[in-house]
Structures are given as structure tokens and as C-alpha cells.
Amino acid sequence: MPRPGLARRSCPTRTTVLELKCPNSLCTVTKSSSVKMTLQEMVLQAAALYSDRIAVCFDGCNNQCPVYYTYRSVVNFASELSSFLQLHCSFEGIREIGLYCYPGINLPSWILGILQVPAAYSPVDPDIPPELSAYFMKKCNLKYILVEKNQVDKFKSSHETWLNNDTITADHTGLTLFELHWNDTDVNLILPDKKENYGKEKMNNCISSLNSNEEKAKKSLDVRFQHCLAYVLHTSGTTGIPKIVRVPHTCIVPNIQHLRILFEITQEDILFMASPLTFDPSVVEIFLALTSGASLLIVPSAIKMLPLKLATVLFHHHHVTVLQATPTLLRRFGSQLIKSSILSATTSLRVLALGGEAFPSLSVLRSWREEDNKTKIFNIYGITEVSAWATCYRIPEEDLSSALGVESPVQLGFPLLGTVVEVRDANGLTVREGEGQVFLGGEKRVCFLDDEITLPFGTMRATGDFVTVKGEAMFFLGRQDSQIKRHGKRINIECVQQVAERICQVESCAVIWYHQERLILFVVTKDGLVKDGVLGELQKHLPSYAVPDDIMVIEALPFTSHGKIDVSELTKIYFNYINLKSSSNLKGKEELWERLQYLWKSSLRLLEDPLEVSKDSLFLSNGGDSLKSLWFSNEIENLVGRSIPGLLEVILNCSVLDIYYYILQAVFPDEDTPLNRSNGTKRKFSVMNKGEISGKYVDQKSGSPVNSGKEQNAFIALSRGNQILFVNVSESLKNSLSMRQTGTKLEKYPSTSSDLSSSEESSFVQNMTSKSPLTIIQKMDGAEEISSVLKISEDETSMRASARIKLRVRWKSNTGKCVDASPLMAILLLNQLSATVYIGSHSHRIQAVDLYSGKVKWEQILGDRIESSACLSHCGNFIIVGCYNGLIYVLRNSNGKIHWMFATKDTVKSSATVDPSTGLIYVGSHDHHAYALDIYKETCVWKSDCEGTVFSSPCLSLAPHHLYIATLKGVLLALNPTTGNRVWTHSCGKPLFSSPQYSLQYVLVGCVDGNLYCFNHMGQLVWQVSTNGPIFSSPCISDLMKQEIFFGSHDCFIYCYNMEGHFQWKFETTASIYGTPFTFHNHNLSSEMLLAAASTDGKLWILDAKRGQLQTVHKLPGEVFSSPVVWQSMLVVGCRDDYVYCLDLLGVTEK
């Protein structure tokens, strides 16, 4: 059964319309009544019933008695002002009168007097910058403004630049009426440039009509109608040029009517005017009270800045029963005061309505409530452009009082009277499940923006707010400008703030994205908690990419006059802080060592460790990885205020003491450093002589070379990125297999003397194609023209009803620890098909697993962690894999026994590659060298100094015969595979974690700077393309699709370009793409090429490789940094939940 409150109906605009279906039995307001009434008429009705009751109270909080007006007094003063204004004002066009004053006892009478003229009131805040108020008044072409008498001098002096001397004035009780005459002086607003274009674009695209037929389209609202407008506001200008918002009675009256019923307002209630007059929730506060016979409490603005005094006035002196506020305003009271006074068991507060910002988490709300508190808490949501509120949701009592402390998101609730809520995707289509942007409007819930004169009824406005739709409920995700990309991952900074709020020592907090570069958390703490403690807690609950770059402990959060966090003020605070920090440069070596230790612990999440960092500690051995090393490197460079070339390599290869000395040498070059990096402590490796190796590790039966003889088997070796090696396979079978399996056109590798016979070939090909488990029932109907940018929502982990393929786990094998290596598949080409998966793990184990059954054939424990992917030897009898202990192991593929080991001088994460023409094995090491090994003669043929850590895997091109090596120093090298001599080098400037890949014409490599670089084989840069995040993924090249290139980025996208560097498509996933994509044929739809890729959040994506359209997605239980490999219809990939997975691609029938 659907939840009461939201009902859906179809709509000609193909948008989801959420209609009002109020669960409250008291909701009997009719649509017709809301159309006919005006705000002033509603007040006059209440005044007739409650003429002698108190309408408004002003407490100056200055040891003097509060002042009270009855409804009769308010109406009489309003009538006097109306008569005065009607006498002195003549209108042509829009009827507006400004009001320049501070909150006081006369405020409701002044507003009501303007409304009765009839005219709209336009509040002008005396405390905002004169440039902004002048801009607002000139933009409105405001002709009249009422100025509080004791503010006349301030008004005149603040605006004399823009006003002519012939301004006319007339006095009334407590007010002076100005007839304004503006000169031609421009108002120069200082605006955030980066937002201005977005604002214009949004304005151009935010309006759509709910009405589809011509008759309805002719119905419109005209801003010039005499009784049209109620009030005029302007937006703050913090996100671009301030907008003028003119609000008709027909837009705001339904809000007042409906909220009055939902909050059950009676003449016994006391409502506090918490909002400034320029913030549209103030309209709700004023008129909820004055249309119900209730009392409105007003205090000076300065008192709102004093939480303790304000709480005393509200809940001990006046016993306020209804409070509408922003979460920021409420937080200023502090959790202790909230619990003891506002939400205590004996509080006078019946209703607490929070809106204007992201709603607090349930755990925070629970911590604020005293046991037995009965206050009803509401989440209200809306935008100024469709004033004031659009949705409302009462938090169920069971959620607030739950002893289990279950943390679930709070929904936005049901639309208020007359409001239509739509959720649309980027193409303007319905979002029935998943993420989209909220659009608000309604038949007559329409406001005029800027210069709009007429608007069709049913106009809808884009909000810039994003929600997730789940069933019948909507959950707020954040503002469009709160969505940021950091380390290539999408983050909502409001979510980071919510996590920080749950830390018990945090009183209140705010997060900013400083200059779109650094994530900064500002914290007001309880009990003097230091920022290290906050950071330690955040690291427990946030992924590494969401942990703030810096934390500032401040005494109180600044907020705007509207009661929201003042982001501009926080930006200034941090700007002053870093300027102060940069002006006080590092005082010397001792301070550098202290700060380096702090950054070391921060990056490795070891802040709670009280011990000093051991001087011989190694980054990778202490839980570091490539992402953490990038963060550590950036923070060090921020600390010293300069770039340090080669720092990343030192972090990955050397001890913390070596890192310190390396920085010291760069920052203080004139000081002697006691230790040079080349002599520094690196990772400790055991040194073994040949006798020790032979006695302990080597299979004694493997004496002579084994790459000849008739007993050799024919293999296909498949590894990440469509790398394929044929062993003892004829040319005809090579081409046949490549066409069916990988979409990779192979180089003409030399055939050996033991090729399969033609009959064996035919038998194998028949077996290979017939055993595919993928069955497709029919083709999808798809248009040729599709969007070039595709995306999937965060929560969508299964295919929709029209899906053609799904993934199902065939088997999984437990390796004991994380599996970051990518699988190697060795397929034995015999009449009885046999295939083995070889893969290593952080547990030091490497396994050989039967591809079809998942049975472990053998397992070998090596000397350290394995992240290197295995490589099959040219003869097919050996597996080569690198290890963290600096050794390169050569294992027998039949039983895993060690045939030979070769020792480098540092960690080996590079995956080896084989030269099919010579049988040599090429591999890189963190010791800055590339090696060519003859595993049959058990010797190193050559080693070449690459002047930087070789993290990625070498790439061998046969024509020309080049070996390509990428380093963390940012250098791409082309070496002669025979001698190891350099052919050419090119510096990309930033680290290269990506492995280079080649085509007939080019060699390509991804870079941490977010670029994919394309070179010709002579080393000349041909083209480069940019992404919005570092590229760790290696390119995957598919020759059968016009040599298209596929790769992933930390910006969460999978990209497709052609070999000329022209963009084909990109697809947005839900997390960074670390591994390399893999293309393969759908066996039953021969014209279709598919692409498999993994995102780091554990999702496996299958796309149509030609168009980038999603075919299916499957979620694994852990993170995935491994690259998928596909054979037939089986996909194999490693996962950080300690398992290697094999999944079947299954066809399903369309519905």
C-alpha cells in the first residue's frame, strides 16, 4: 500500500507529479477558498473574532516591560497608514511600497497598512550593504518607501549616491514616506564570478509549464493587477546576481491555510518571529499568528545573536509554543540548552518546524530531546522563488524516541496545498526511482522573477536541489552547488557535515569547499575537543576521499540575517588563517619533522596513535596506497608552499626519515642534510645467494630451458585491458578467436612448430562457441541517436525490466586478504576445454583456480603482499609475478612450485609482460629500474635506469620493436627491448600510475593530471584529452571498433575516444574507475561489442561498447581495484572483501 501523503498521476510533460493527499484529518481547506482570499482579508477575519486578544508583543529585552498590541489596535493603526498612503501614492504599473525598518511593535500594522492600500510590501534591511539594497530598489523601480523615523538619516546617507536631490518626503506616525527619484549612477555589486553563468543558465532553463493544452496556456497571472501582489523580496546574491521575487497572494495564502491546520494553530498559541523580514519564512510566522487569533512575539535582532538570553526570553518569559527556524539558528543554542530548555520535558514548545537548510539527522535530534519531550517536529522545504514552503513532513514519534538509535534519512514529506512537486533527470524526464532535481510550482503557486510581467498558471521552477526518490518518498541530497568532485569522487558536503555532527564532542559544524580546492570543516566543540580527535573520528566513518583537508575549531559559527550559515564569512576566516600560516613559514627542521609526522598519521589514519612515528617507517607498509600517497604529497607541498619534484616517488619508496630529508633539501637547500636519499633506508629485503635460493625454493627438476619439444601445449593467455598472448597457436586460429572473444586485432606473433592441426582448430572453435552460457532472447529496440553522456544513480544496482543481461556469481575463492591484482586467464586449447585463473592477494598467496568450477588447483605462499598481476611465459609452462618484498617469482603453472626468483632492490607492483619473439620477461620495480629476464637461463639480460619508480606495467610493441615504460616521476620511456637502451623519453609532469598501451600508430598513457596522452612511436605528442580526475586506469584498445580507446577516471566516468582523439561517449558510474576496462563480444549477437569495467565501490558495469549504454550492473560486497577479464561469458575480478569472483553473464527476456 502506498504511504498516505503522496499520490502520483501521469502528466503530459512526462514528469512525476506529487499531488497533495494530506494524511491529517483536519485538512479541509478547499482550493477555491485559497484563491479568493488575500493575506489582509484573512487577518481582518481573525481580528473580528479576537479583537481584544493580544496580536503582537515586542520585548526589547532591556529590563523594561514588553509592549503589547491587541488585534483591534493593529487593525486601527493599519487603517490609518493605509489612508495616508492612498493619499500620497499614485501607482502606474506594479503596486509596491518599500519598508525600511527594524523589527518592532508596529511592524505588523505597517505591513497590514501597505497591503490594504492595496500594494505589495518590499522590505529593505537597514543592515545589508547599501549597494545591495540600492540594486534591489532600482531593479524594482521602487517609487515609494516607508522609512522608520529614527532610521531616516541612515537611509539618506547610505543611498545618496543613487538618489536625486529632489526626493519628496511626507511624515506619518513613526514613519517617513520617501518618493524616490533615481539617478543614472550604476550599482556595482561584488558577485562570485564562478556562479554568474550558472545563474543565467539556470534562469534560461528553469521555467516550464504544467499545462499542455492551449486553453490552459492562455490563462495567466499579471503582476500589474491591483490585488495581485502581497510582497516583494530579493535573493541574497550569494550564488550569483540577486533575483527579484514578487509573490502574489494566490501563491502564499495556501501555505498559511495549510500550515495553520498542520500545526493546529489556535488563539492560545504564541509564535516567535525568528526570521528577518527579508526572508520569506517571516511571512509564514507573521500570518500564521495573525490569521489565527494567536500572538506574535518580536525581539530585537541583536538578541537573536545571544543564545542564552534568547532561550530565556522565548521559553521562560513568554512561553513560545510554535518555533519556525533554520537548523543553524537552532544549533546556536547548543545541545545542552536545547535539551534543558527548548526540547525539555516541560517545555512550552508544541511545534518545532525546521527548514531553509538540510534537516538534522535523527541521531542529532534524539540527542537534543529530553526524555518525555512532546514537541512535534516538522521538516519543511521550499524555495524563495515559489514562496514560501512546498512540502512538509512530521517526524514520527517512534523515530524520535527509538532506543535503537537507527539512523535513517528524513524525507521531505508531502506537497502543501496547491503545490506540485516534480523530480526530473538531466533530460527533463520523470524520475520515478533514483536521483533527480526538484521542480516546484502549481496551478497558482507562481511567483514573478525579475522583469517577468505575466506568467501562465502552472509555471514550474527548477530548485537546484537534488533528491532521491524511493517509492513514494523523497530524500534531500543537497544543493547543486553542494555537489563537488574531489579526488575524482562525487561528494555532497552536507553529508560530510552530518557525519561530523554525529560526533558526540561536536556542538555544531559547517563545511565549505574552499576555492574549489580544499574541503574545510569548521567545528564548535564541546569540552575543548581538539581537532585531532575530530579528524580521527571522521576517518572512522568517512571514505578517505571525503575526509576534510583541514579542520578549524572556532568559538561560534557565523550566520546570515536569514539564520543560515554564512559561507562567505567562513571563507574569510580560513583565508586569514592560511595567510597567517604562510606568513609564519617553517621555523626550521624541528617544526618540519613535527608537521610531517602529523600529516603522516593523518594520511594513514593513525592520529589516535600516541607514539612518535618510527624513523624507518615505510608508507606502503603502514597501510598507504596510491590515493593516500597523492594526498600526503599534496599536503606536504601545501605545508612548505612550493612544489617538490619527485616527492611522490620518495613517499612510495623510502622511509619517513628519508622523506623528511628530501623535503629538507628542497626547502632549506643551504643546510646540510645528514642523509642523502640514495643512501637512505628503503624497504628491507632479504638478500639470498644462489645456493640459498636453489636449496629452499627451486623445483630441482627444472634444470634446463623448457621452451622446446613436442610436449608443449597450446594456450591463450588473457589479462587486463584485452591483452592477449597466443602460445603455440596457428595464425588462422588466432584471428578466429580474436574475432569471437576480445575484439582485439593481434600482431603477427611468430608461430611455433607445434601449432594445432586444422581439425583440432575446428573442434576447438566449435566447442568454444557452443559452451557459452549467455543466451539472448531478442534484440532491444533502440534509436540510433543517443546522448553522449550517460549516468547511473547511486542506488541503482540492478537492471530495469528491459535489461537483456544480468550478472550472477558462478563461484568465489577466498584468498585471505584483499585482492587488488587483476586475473590472468590461461586457456588450454584441447578437445576437452580447460582454463585456469591465476591471481595474487595481499595475504601473500597466489592461487590457481579452475575457471569453470572455482576449484583451487594449487596455492603458493610468497614472501609478501602481491598486487602485481601474473604473466604467462612464452612456453606456457610458467607464471611470473612480482611481490612487495622486491622479488620476481617464476612459478610452475601446473603446481605453483618456485622455479626461479630474481631480486630487485625494492617493491614490485609492476606486472610483467612477455616478448613472444624472444621469450624475455620485462618488468619494472620501485627501485627505478626496468628489467629484462631470461627465465630459462635464470639470468638478467639487462636492467635500465628509468629515473623514477616503475609502478605500472611495461608495454611491448613489436612494430616498431619498443618497450614502453611509465614512471611515477611522470616520464614515459621507449626502450630497445633487446638492449634496454633508450629510444626516446617524454615528461608528462605528473605521476604515471597508468600502464601504457599501444596501437599500430600510437602509444597511450593516462596521467594523474587527468589527461590521457597519445604519442606516435617516435615520441611526439599527437593529442591529449582531459578528464576531471586523476587517471589510474590503463587504456583499453579495441581494434575491431575502429581502434577505439576505453579508459576510466577518478571523476567516476568511463570514456570512449577514437584513435584520432575524438570523443565518442562517456558514462557516469557511482565511484572512481581505478582498473582497466575490457571489451568482448556478445556471442549470440555478433554485431554487438560489450565493455566490462569496475568502479571502486564494488560495482561491475557492462556497457554497450559502441554507444556507452548500460546493459547491467552488479554490486560486489567490497571495493574493487582489480580489472575485470572476460572469457566467453565468464567475468573474473578481484575484490577487497578477500575474494576473487567469477560471474556468469546471463541473457534475460525483455518484458
Automatic annotation (TrEMBL):
<dbReference type="InterPro" id="IPR002372">
    <property type="entry name" value="PQQ_rpt_dom"/>
</dbReference>
<dbReference type="GO" id="GO:0043041">
    <property type="term" value="P:amino acid activation for nonribosomal peptide biosynthetic process"/>
</dbReference>
<keyword id="KW-0597">Phosphoprotein</keyword>
<keyword id="KW-0436">Ligase</keyword>
<keyword id="KW-0067">ATP-binding</keyword>
<keyword id="KW-0276">Fatty acid metabolism</keyword>
<dbReference type="GO" id="GO:0016874">
    <property type="term" value="F:ligase activity"/>
</dbReference>
<dbReference type="InterPro" id="IPR015943">
    <property type="entry name" value="WD40/YVTN_repeat-like_dom_sf"/>
</dbReference>
<feature type="domain" description="Carrier">
    <location>
        <begin position="590"/>
        <end position="667"/>
    </location>
</feature>
<dbReference type="Pfam" id="PF13193">
    <property type="entry name" value="AMP-binding_C"/>
</dbReference>
<dbReference type="GO" id="GO:0005524">
    <property type="term" value="F:ATP binding"/>
</dbReference>
<dbReference type="InterPro" id="IPR011047">
    <property type="entry name" value="Quinoprotein_ADH-like_sf"/>
</dbReference>
<dbReference type="InterPro" id="IPR000873">
    <property type="entry name" value="AMP-dep_synth/lig_dom"/>
</dbReference>
<feature type="region of interest" description="Disordered">
    <location>
        <begin position="744"/>
        <end position="764"/>
    </location>
</feature>
<dbReference type="InterPro" id="IPR020845">
    <property type="entry name" value="AMP-binding_CS"/>
</dbReference>
<dbReference type="InterPro" id="IPR042099">
    <property type="entry name" value="ANL_N_sf"/>
</dbReference>
<dbReference type="GO" id="GO:0006631">
    <property type="term" value="P:fatty acid metabolic process"/>
</dbReference>
<dbReference type="InterPro" id="IPR009081">
    <property type="entry name" value="PP-bd_ACP"/>
</dbReference>
<dbReference type="InterPro" id="IPR048005">
    <property type="entry name" value="AASDH_AMP"/>
</dbReference>
<comment type="similarity">
    <text>Belongs to the ATP-dependent AMP-binding enzyme family.</text>
</comment>
<keyword id="KW-0547">Nucleotide-binding</keyword>
<keyword id="KW-0443">Lipid metabolism</keyword>
<dbReference type="Pfam" id="PF00501">
    <property type="entry name" value="AMP-binding"/>
</dbReference>
<dbReference type="Pfam" id="PF13570">
    <property type="entry name" value="Beta-prop_ACSF4"/>
</dbReference>
<dbReference type="InterPro" id="IPR018391">
    <property type="entry name" value="PQQ_b-propeller_rpt"/>
</dbReference>
<dbReference type="InterPro" id="IPR025110">
    <property type="entry name" value="AMP-bd_C"/>
</dbReference>
<dbReference type="InterPro" id="IPR045851">
    <property type="entry name" value="AMP-bd_C_sf"/>
</dbReference>
<feature type="compositionally biased region" description="Low complexity">
    <location>
        <begin position="751"/>
        <end position="763"/>
    </location>
</feature>
<dbReference type="InterPro" id="IPR052091">
    <property type="entry name" value="Beta-ala_Activ/Resist"/>
</dbReference>
<protein>
    <recommendedName>
        <fullName>Beta-alanine-activating enzyme</fullName>
    </recommendedName>
</protein>
<keyword id="KW-0596">Phosphopantetheine</keyword>
